[in-house]
Sequence to fold (220 residues):
Amino acid sequence: MISLGLLAASTVLGHSQATPPAAPASAAQASGEWITLFNGKDLAGWMNAAGADSKWVVADGAMSGQRGSGDIWTKARYGNFVLEVEFMTTGNSGVFLRTDNPQNCIQTGIEIQVENPGGPNRHSVGAIYDLVAPTKNAAKAGAWNKYVITVEGPKIKVELNGETVSSMDLDQWTQAGRNPDGSGNKFKMALKDWKREGHLGFQDHGNKVSYRNVRIKPLP
Fold:
């Protein structure tokens, strides 16, 4: 009986040792704590569209891409969240949200436009690209700008340098290729039917662009 007891104890102990503890990021996601997505030192947690190492570079606490770097993506997927990110750009780039397939980001992800000051229109900085124009041009040229993007269910809200500049309700986008106001867009499926979780990404659109202080707070 003693031998059987020892055997059972060792079996339970072996099983508990084989089960790894929960990863810190998972625990943070469950509790709604802020998660640092970019540590300012390397690209741990990031990948290219094919899932391999990215060509973006890290210097002075920022990640930078330019023509030929390709888009860069989080390995993890996120649904509801608050995203904070600072950017400095020489031209067109973008922050992609809830992207189901990074290799087809245009048709599976929502883009928040990154660009030099201009507009406002549906393709200017602060726009929810091709969908909603910002209410004003709140960007600063040649300087760091900050986005706070809140994504919760069908709702998306974009704050640029402390001002709310655009927002939308995906449930109002009921037709493919058409916005609620009747204007056209490039999307082949009604946005109300898109997945509401996916990868986050930064776009290489041929211009030098840098991002830093990237963090996310998952929401229920």
